[in-house]
Design a protein that fits this description.
The protein is α/β, with parallel strands linked by helices and about 290 residues long. It has one domain: Divalent-metal-dependent TIM barrel enzymes (TIM Barrel). It contains twelve helices and twelve strands. The strands form three sheets. Strands 1-2-3-4-5-8-9-12 form an eight-stranded parallel β-barrel, surrounded by four helices. A hairpin with a 2-residue loop joins strand 6 and strand 7. Helix 6 packs across helix 7. The termini are far apart. The N terminus is likely disordered.
């Protein structure tokens, strides 16, 4: 009886292990415990005082940032990647993601610029190189989105070679219908799920009439990053402090595990309060109510 029980246990354990291998990796994704800030929120302040701004971001309760605007000429607001990484470390910050242009790849097929961005993102310790925007001329048809998806797969291969992952950040135009589909659905279906992740901007998704939870359920595990950006109650075209607008974040965050959420990144594109007061208020709400 004892031997049979042991055999049964071993058999069941083996079956469970085999099942675990078949389950998508998002099942084991750890929900974020800290909040990040997309530095685009402070685009007006950064160029004049990058060190002071980063210090204030850390003081506001953030532990992560997402970069934007890196260029071969100006680097990270005048700091080379190592100097910028050291500045982040000094303020208790990491940069798991950054927004980098893919204009050269999309227009000419050349990869020199992208390789430079990959090198910079790797140097500051990022996990994701995120595509922030698609210029309007590139996205005039469903076929255009298929071509974009192919380019994203190509970029993802280059990222993988350097230990990075590629992600795509949306606005609202991706949800425009093309026949019985949308640009966003095409990107999700035509990109390699093992190589290309998605950073869902919750504000733009909701503003375009979509339910984030339905997107997560339809494409589980593909949304490791979210932009947590609230919608003003009086004017849906502007942002407000997280928790004071119209977006039901508490319901959306119930789908965090299905989405595969790893990084919750606050972004606010306009302010009615002092920006540093505003970003702290949003950070406090996200940490207390959502994470």
């Amino acid at each position: 009886m004892m031997m049979n029980s042991r055999r049964t246990f071993i058999k069941q354990t083996g079956m469970a292990a085999a099942a675990a291998l078949l389950l998508p990796s998002f099942t084991y994704a750890k929900a974020p415990k800290v909040v990040g800030l997309q530095l685009y929120s402070l685009r007006a302040q950064l160029p004049a005082d990058v060190r002071g701004v980063i210090a204030k971001v850390g003081a506001a309760g953030y532990k992560e940032v997402e970069t934007f605007g890196y260029s071969a000429k100006n680097k990270y607001w005048g700091l080379d990647p190592m100097a910028f990484k050291n500045l982040l470390i000094e303020n208790g910050l990491k940069a798991p993601s950054g927004h980098y242009s893919v204009d050269e790849l999309m227009t000419s097929g050349k990869t020199d610029e992208l390789k430079g961005f990959i090198e910079a993102a790797s140097a500051i310790g990022s996990e994701y190189l995120t595509v922030p925007y698609l210029a309007e001329p590139w996205r005039q048809s469903a076929d255009d989105y298929k071509k974009i998806a192919a380019k994203l797969n190509q970029a993802a291969e280059l990222c993988k070679a350097s230990g990075l992952k590629l992600a795509y950040h949306n606005h609202d135009f991706e949800f425009k219908p093309w026949g019985d589909t949308t640009g966003y659905e095409i990107l999700l279906k035509e990109t390699d799920p093992k190589m290309v992740a998605f950073e869902l901007d919750l504000y733009w998704a909701v503003r375009s009439g979509n339910d984030p939870a339905k997107l997560f359920a339809a494409h589980p595990g593909r949304f490791p990053m979210w932009h947590v950006k609230d919608m003003d109650k009086a004017n849906n075209k502007i942002n407000t402090e997280v928790g004071t607008g119209t977006i039901d974040f508490k319901t959306i965050f119930k789908s965090a595990k299905v989405a595969g959420l790893k990084y919750a990144i606050m972004e606010q594109e306009n302010f009615s309060l002092d920006p540093y007061v505003s970003i702290k208020q949003s950070a406090d709400y996200i940490k207390a109510q959502l994470l």
